[in-house]
Amino acid sequence: MPGLLILGLASAAHAQNPPSPARQDARPATVTVGAPWVWTLYADGEPVVLAQEIPDTPQLKTTLECEPRSGQVRLSLYDAADLGNGPVILRSGPHTATGEMQTVRLRLSTSLPADHPVFMAFVNNGEMKFSREEQVKTVSVGPQHLPLLRRFARACAG
Fold first, then answer.
1. What three-state secondary structure class fits 107?
2. CA distances, 65 to each of 77, 94, 97, 153 (Å)
3. d(CA 10, CA 30)
4. Which stretches of 3-129 are DSSP H helices?
5. Rounded CA gap, 50 and 149, in Å?
6. CA dihedral 29, 56, 81, 114 (to 10 degrees)
7. Is the omega angle on the peptide bond into residue 94 within 30 degrees of 0, that is, cis?
8. DSSP state, residue 145
């Protein structure tokens, strides 16, 4: 059904732990977001992960994950508990999608096709908003960081 999002738990491997030191040794691409948060792309294994994180800590703000060439993307927000459970609207550029939101341990996870217009707009403009009633959470990837997001999207494309 077009515009339908499937929301659920983030993958256990990455929701509970940041990428392992072994994966970090593979020299992931990292771009500074603003001290001390960075965007890091882990594209050398499965799943492919783009994480907004504080390096060498378990602190995550946002993760995008996919199995290579699966055509499906999981996006998790780690600071979204105030959105609560219920319907959510995702918006990027002129595109919107609706789904049912669940929060678990301060994390909201959503899954959508890599070729969904909302995700494609996010890859182009670097901004996606999650909204429910008066609450809005925004994931922003600045213009200087878009190459990492685009590499992630190419790796996920089916």
1. strand
2. 12, 24, 19, 10
3. 22
4. 12-16, 21-24, 117-125
5. 7
6. 20
7. no
8. G
Q: Torsion over CA of 24, 122, 6 and 44, rounded to 10 degrees?
A: -20
Residue 137 sits at the vertex; the CA angle it makes with 97 and 43, to the nearest 5 degrees, is 80
Amino acid present at 116: H
Q: Which residue has the tokens 């925004």?
A: 138
Please state, in angstroms and rounded to a whole number, the distance separating the CA atoms of residues 18 and 34. Answer: 19
**In b/e form, how buried is each residue of 64-93, taking b as 16+ CB within 10 angstroms?**
bbbeeebebbbbbbbebeebeeeebbbbbe
Give residue-wise pLDDT tens across range 132-151.
888 899 999 988 789 999 99
Which residues, listed in sequence order, are joined to residue 131 by a DSSP beta bridge?
89, 136
Contact 31, 145 (CB under 8 A): yes
Choice between 18 and 105, residue whose per-residue pLDDT is larger: 105
